[in-house]
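Q: Structure for this?
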Amino acid sequence: MAALLDRFAPIMSQRDALFGDEGVNPFQVKMDQVLSQTEAMIGGRRTILVGTNNYLGLTFAPEALKAAHEALEACGTGTTGSRVANGTYYGHKELEDTLREFFGKEHAMVFSTGFLANLGILSTLMGPEDYILMDADCHASIYDGVRGSTAQIIRFRHNDAADLDKRLARLADKPGNKLIVIEGIYSMLGDKAPLADIVAVKKKYENVYLLSDEAHSLGVLGKYGRGLPEEVGCEDDVDFIVGTFSKSVGTVGGFCVSNHPQFDILRLMTRAYVFTASLPPSVVASATVNLGLVKNGGALRKRLMRNAQKLHAGLTAIGLKIASENSPVVAVVAPDPMVAVAFWRGLIEAGVYVNLALPPATPYGYSLLRASLCAAHTEEQLDEVIAIFAQVAAKVGLASSPEKQVAERKRIAVG
Amino acid sequence: MNAPTGAEPSPDTLAALFEILKSFNKTGAELAPGTRFSEDLNFDSLVVMEFIAVVEDAFDISVPLNILPDVATIRDLAVAVEKIVAEDKL
Ligand SMILES: Cc1ncc(COP(=O)(O)O)c(C=O)c1O
C-alpha cells in the first residue's frame, strides 16, 4: 500500500535536491519583525523587501490604520458568519458602495479573498451550453475557478489576440455565451494584456463577454488606478472586473464589479461567497479607506514606476536577463532552478527579499527571481538592492564583466 | 497498456499525433496507440498543455480542458480529436 502522499514523491525529491540542505528554505521565510512597508527583520537581519506586491505601500497608511482600529473596537475581531447570513455589516455594504463608485459600475460583490472571487465567479457565471476562453497564463485561482464550471474550457495562447480570434471563429455558429478571461497585468512577468486588440476581437462576435482580473493592475495603471481598462480607455467593454485588496490596496479580500443587470443573483448562486465567513470589519474598513488613497494615488503611481525603472535599469546593467518591461514587476531569469535558489539565498543572506518562482508556476518554464516594487522604496534602498544583486550575480556567475557593466550603465544613462 | 476505449481512430490521425509527439518524447518510450501520456511519456501538466497547443494548431481545433481527464493514451486523444474535428464541421 502506497503512503498517502506518495504520488508527490517526484516533487519531494526535487524539493529536497533544491533546498533540503542547511540553507534558508525560500518557501518558508519568516519575518520576525515588520519594520515598515519595505523592511523587515528576517533571520536576525534587516532586510529590504522587494517582493511584496505592496505596490503603493499602503499597508501602514495612517488613515487606514485609524479606520481599522475604530472598526475593530466597534465591531470586534470577526463577523463569524457568511455574507448571506450574519456576516454583512454596514462596513461591507459601504465597501461595496465604494467599489461601485470607484469603478463606476452598477454592482459590486466583496469576497473574502481574490482567490475566492475568481473561484466563485468563474465557476458560476457560465453554464453547460457556454464556453470560457482563457489566457493560458492565467492565475491558479482562475484555473481552479473554471474547473468548477460546467462550461467548455478553452485556452488561448498568452496575450495572443489572433489566437483568441481563431478560437472564437470556430465557436461562432454554436449557441451559448462565451466568456473571455484575461488579467490586466500578469503576475509572474508583469506583462500587460493587449486589451485593445482583445476588445476588438470580442466585438467581432455575438454573445461574448470579457472578464479581466485586475489583481496586479488595480492601483498601478490608469490615472485613478482603475487598472488596465482605464489606461486603455475601454472600461465599458470589460463586463466583469475581478480584483483583490491583497496587493496595492494593502490588506486582504477580493471583489467583482459589473454592470450586468442580473448580477445580484450571483450573491445566492456563488458558493465561494455563500459558504465562507465574510471579511473582519477592520479589514473592510482599511480596504474602504485605502481605495480612496488608491484613487488619489497619482503621485504614488509615479513613484512606483520611477522605482521600477530604476531597478530595471540597475539589474539590466549588471548583465542579468530581465523578462519584464516597463512594469512594477521586475522578473530576473536564472538559467535553472539550482542557480535560482543559489541566487535567492545569496540575496536573502545579504538582506534582500525577492520572490523565488519556479516551474511549473512560471511561464516558459522560467526559474525566476521576481522583484516587485513599492512606491515607498527610497532611492537609497534601491541602490543597496542593486549593489547586492551585483555582488550575488557575480558569485553565481550571472554578471557580465565589469567593463561591460560600465559600458551598459553609460548606454542606459544616455538613454 | 489500456484497453481501447470505444471507437478506433484513423491511422492518419494517429500518425499525425505520433509525428508531433516525437519532439515531446523525452523518455524514448515506444509510440503506439496505447502509450500513456503520464505513465509512459512522463508528461507533467505543463508539458501536456504545450503538447495540446501544438495538436490544436496541427488540426486547427480547440481542445477543451474538460476532456483532458479522460485522455490517458494516444488512442484516447486521437478519438477526441476526431470527434472535435467532426463537430466543427457541423
Ligand atoms: C492574478 C491574480 N488573481 C488572484 C490572486 C489572488 O488574490 P488573493 O491574494 O486576494 O487571494 C492573485 C494573487 O495571488 C493573482 O496574482
